[in-house]
Amino acid sequence: MALCLSTFSKISWYPFSDEPVIRSQWYMSRLCDPFFLFPEESPDGKWHLFGHTWVGIEHFISENGISWEPRKMIELRGHSPSIYYEDGIYYLLYEKHNASLPPIRKGRFRRREQEKITYSRFEMRSSTDLILFSEPKILLDSRTVPFAKDGLKKSRISRPQIIKTEQGYRLYFGASHLLLPDTKQKTSRHFAMALSSSLEGPYALANEGEPLLSPYADDPYRNMAVGSIKVVKTEDGYVGFECAMYWDKKRAKTTSMLLQLESTDGLAFKPSFRSPVLVPPRSGWASRYIVSCDVHYKSEEDCWYCYYSANSKKGLFPVRESIGLLLGKDPNLRKVFI
Questions:
Q1: Which among 79, 201, 204, 241 could bridge 95 via Cys, Cβ 3.0 to 4.6 Å?
Q2: What number of other Cβ atoms are within 10 A of residue 5's Cβ?
Q3: What is the rounded distance in angstroms from the CA atom of residue 246 to the CA atom of residue 79?
Q4: 66 φ/ψ angles, rounded to the nearest 5 degrees
Q5: Number of C-alpha atoms within 13 angstroms, CB side, residue 120?
Q6: What is the pLDDT of residue 1?
Q7: Are strands 303-312 and 289-298 parallel, antiparallel or unpaired?
Q8: Is it the case that residue 332 has pLDDT exceeding 80?
Q9: Using CA atoms in the order 204, 291, 185, 172, what is the torsion angle rounded to 10 degrees?
Q10: Taking all residues of the chain, what is their mean pLDDT, rounded to a whole number?
Q11: How many angstroms separate the CA atoms of 182 and 251, rounded?
């Protein structure tokens, strides 16, 4: 299948199941921001999925992409993981804004300088096997992003994603955040991009130092916040999958929607003419907000996989966020095999 912009407008999306493929547990009630690798992309021929809880970045493995088992905690207090692969090396990117816990050495606590850092930043660690990772390197400091402090006392960046182009490396990310007024759901305020000729940086803001997307009061689906956006590079441009946050006038509450965006240059994104990819159901595990997603194409199946996180809340119980799965097919291709 030719992966061009017009291809995405034809894709028919449907849920694999009405239930999540990875359900949150009592000790990790909110499992967020999934990023996954197909078996053909991994070093051991298995499916790998990364997400974060309040504790840190969790690593899951699977034989089939449906039944997942937790493997290990990768980064304590890390958030919003993604993987970039180049020349046999897997680069784990994530956001962090907490100081690391001090290690115990010779019977007492000792802090290294990097463990004293408490500002929001993107870190990167490398691995050849997704088991052992190098020491972290700081990729982007939130204090160099002026709009990352909008509405906040301290700057905040989130959800890093790297895409390589002929000109270099593009680092897409969320900047600043806000709490939705009726539910206190935290979400990214802006969407931005930084550029570098080297994978390890330094990265400089694109778009003349301004966000690529920001909330707009008259936008029907982005009037509260941009939310999370996953970017997919195509042959003739870029597609974005946005979990936009907006005020639903009919229901008098905030909600979200998974939308498809399109761009020819990766800077100016506009809504696709297609219908929304996914809306929260009226009830069930994903009825509150669709929060984030990761999307990849599996060529041998002519199928798109979209793992997404969504949440719900019942009474006085804490919010529970789990991981679901959408599958995408070109309807014309589906007819061939019927």
A1: 79
A2: 16
A3: 24
A4: -115, -50
A5: 24
A6: 58
A7: antiparallel
A8: no
A9: 0
A10: 92
A11: 12
How far apart, in Å, are the Cα atoms of 328 and each of 272, 277, 302?
A: 16, 10, 9
Cis peptide before 146 (omega within 30 of 0): no
Radius of gyration of the chain, Cα coordinates, nearest whole angstrom: 19
Range of the domain at 308: 5-337
Q: What is the CATH number of the domain that holds 271?
A: 2.115.10.20
252 CB burial (10 A radius; 0-12, 13-18, 19+) = exposed
Contacts 24+ apart (CB under 8 A), 196-199: 196/168, 196/169, 196/171, 197/167, 197/168, 197/169, 198/168, 198/169, 199/84, 199/86, 199/91, 199/162, 199/169
In the block, tokens 């999370």 appear at 228
DSSP symbol at 30: B
pLDDT tens digits for 54-85?
999 999 999 999 999 999 999 999 999 999 99
Please, which residues bridge with residue 231 across strands?
240
Residue-wise burial string across 224-247, b where 16 or more C-beta atoms lie within 10 A, e elsewhere: bbbbbbbbbebeebbbbbbbbbbb
Sheet containing 168-179: which strands, arranged edge to edge?
157-165, 168-179, 186-196, 204-205
Q: Which of 164, 70, 173 is nearest to 123 (CA)?
A: 173
Output the six-digit token pair for 3: 């992966």
- Residue 140 tokens read as 């982007």
